[in-house]
Amino acid sequence: MTFEPLASDFYGYENLLTDQEREALTRLRDYLAAEVKPIVNEHWENATFPHEIVKGLADRGVYSFAWEETKPFENSAVFRGFVALELARVDASVATLVGVQNGLAMGAISVTGSAEQRAEWLPKMARGEVVGAFGLTEPQSGSDSAQGLRTIATRDGDEWVLNGSKRWIGNATFSDITVIWAKDAADGR
Questions:
Q1: Which end of the chain is more exposed for a tag (fewer CB within 10 A), N or C?
Q2: What's the pLDDT at 146?
Q3: Domains in the chain and their CATH numbers?
Q4: In what order do the strands lie in the sheet with 159-163?
């Protein structure tokens, strides 16, 4: 397995990667070239998503690198940036799947979830057993939550009742878990 630098890396950022990061990036590049690139255009033309790649991406660690509970080895933000770059080089929709799964859904659980929620969801999502979606954008304010979330959550016993609208929820058509941002009706938080 030989690491091939990108011709477009004019500043030599790949030189900042560790040997382990280069090996992981090479495995990902090989997988994307062999298993993803040959099928994505047909899926695009048919308005379908290649669900079979979710597990293959998980097997290469793409959902797990950033989180203490799931990262297979210590890695840098530069490395994680190159992972995103490799995904986008092959297909923007695949990069979006990973960005929503890893960055938005898992990121929200990692930052705002309880220890129990982190322990339950992050490993399952890292293994590709559960696909996450993320609902922040609203019709009136887009993703600018500083304008004020209009979606309200009201506690009803052990459950929450949501009242509001969301748009552009990445992965929503096939997600297993969806993180929805809303304001608590009781305290406005």
A1: C
A2: 61
A3: 12-129 (1.10.540.10), 131-189 (2.40.110.10)
A4: 159-163, 152-156, 183-184
